[in-house]
Amino acid sequence: TKPSQVALRRHLNAVKREQFPWMLEVTKTAPQMAIIQLGEAFRNFFAGRARYPRFRKKGVHDRFTLTNDQFRVEGSRIRIPNLGWVRMRESLRFTGKIMSATVSRVADRWFVSITVDTEDPPRRPAENQGSVGVDLGVLALATLSTGDTITGPKAHTALLKR
Asked: What global pTM score does this model have?
């Protein structure tokens, strides 16, 4: 039978109390999101869009994902379950609904990637700035039909003078 997200979740719930008791100590969304991502990986494999999913080694590309009800962001700090308040380098730059956060480790440093659902920025109509013809040349980089010339970088002559 093909493994699916539902089958993987049922199997994990059946065996986690006796085989993986440490899973009861961590936040519930970390294994849930891992199962969801594994289900997507199997679906992409059976559709022919990806290779067979492989296990990640412990300590290499460590990461876990939290849903929006599992963490809180206030200013330049984030509250992670079972860890507490953690300082961030900068505060959120975007306003909107916070969807999820992925905590990952790269070279023994931890990073948080926060997904925010923002409204589309209002699109302003482009102002008509006129049109101009461009002639690309050898002596000058470009000559415009208005008579302006744009000189290109002359790295060789600058280095010869030095």
From this structure: 0.60
